[in-house]
Amino acid sequence: MGSLMRWKGYSARVEYDDEDRIFFGRLAGIRDGVGFHAYTVQGLRAAFREAVEDYRGMCEKIGKVG
């Protein structure tokens, strides 16, 4: 079962892999594949925000509405 994270109008479904002991997620509602991961919940929040900012920056750079 996953949970949803939201920030700046973006959302991501996040899950935990017990075998690898890592949290991971993927931005939802976009066509591009943007994933992120971390070993802690705090790290996951930071990785999610960084992924959103990186995606927004990339969209701005290429003139794409993100």
Keywords:
single chain, 66 residues, alpha+beta, 4-stranded antiparallel sheet, 1 helix
Briefly summarize what is shown.
The chain has 66 residues and is α+β, with helices and mostly antiparallel strands.
N-to-C terminal Cα separation, in Å? 27 Å
Content of β-strand: 35-45%
Residues in helices, as a percent range: 25-40%
The counted number of beta strands is 4
Number of domains: 1
Strand order of the largest sheet: 1-2-3-4
Overall morphology: elongated
Number of helices: 1
Q: Structural class, from helix and strand content?
A: alpha+beta
Residue stretches low in confidence (pLDDT < 50, at least 5 long) are none
Biggest sheet features: 4 strands, antiparallel
- The overall pLDDT average reads 94
Order of helical and strand elements: EEEEH
- Compute the CA-based radius of gyration: 12 Å
